[in-house]
Amino acid sequence: MKILVITQHIFPIQTPRSIRSTELIKELARRGHDVTVYAVLGKYDYSSFEKETGIKVKGIPIHWEVLPTSSDGPSKRNFIDKVFGRLLRRFEFPLFEFYYRIPEIIASESQYDVLISIAVPHQIHWGCANARMKYPEKFPKHWIADCGDPYMKNGRTKEHLQRYAKYERLFCEECDYITVPIENAKEAYYPEYRDKIRVIPQGFDFDLSAVGQKQVHNDVPTFAFAGMFYPDIRNPKLFLDYLCSLNREFRFYVYTRFDNLLIDYKERLKGKMIIKNPVPRKELIDILSGMDFLVNISNVNSPNQLPSKLIDYGIAGRPILDVNPINPNTNQIDEFMSGDYSSALKIANLQDYHIGNVVDKFEGLFS
Question: Is 48 within a domain?
């Protein structure tokens, strides 16, 4: 089948949605589908990737941002971008541009059998709905709107429900299916559209037989966190405060792009916390598999979201310490430091996240 995928990012940037998009298009192409992907591209040369996979990679033309964040990685936004971003944030600037650019893409392309639009940002879905209304004769026969973090009832931004409800209802009305990564995410969407929702987990390419087989021998408790921290839903402050109070040796590796919440603790922990830049996903999983245990800071205020890093943690095969950022269980932290992992967080049904099983579910929606 001819399949069109529209997303904000693909590799080499490492984000949950870029991984979702990249793994999906690779597996679809491997199965013989004719795949074209549109994303916000930078200067990365995809010619060898296109030759190896048969996937056609095309750029979404962005005009509103002078320096858009592309699939190359986060760019340093200039003064003009920052000023307009602050002034027009309530109007979803610059992401609202997708609403206008995607109809242009549909109008310029030949007929496709399937469209898979990937959010976040949800403005991509809004643009697809706009395209379906403007160019019904050019629009693909089947449209799957894939959603990561919810937009409407995301637990943080209440004004979304009022200001942009008509756009959310528009995409929910026009699409054939809404796919979400976990069962709980259904509650974040309007009840009248929940019959369109299908649960399809995040997909990864990994060898199930190798999970948890690595032997670990560290001289002091060695653990890691990989991902991003947020002041409101994933703040490590209380966990780090407790680590500062411990009179024992340990090594805590943090792989993150944004370390603003860690700066004060780097000095307080006197070399026990090592902050690293993000590394490619497969390299990261190999590093994580050598830790005694891994740390997850729960999204307490966002129960409808599942951090994709938990799947990487599960693939790494190490015990997971699940920390409540509001009320860390210090007894549990002490147990992990002593090698007692009996209360470790379990990732059930890891095989569900294998990209082969994930694409089986996508194909079931349009076959």
Answer: yes
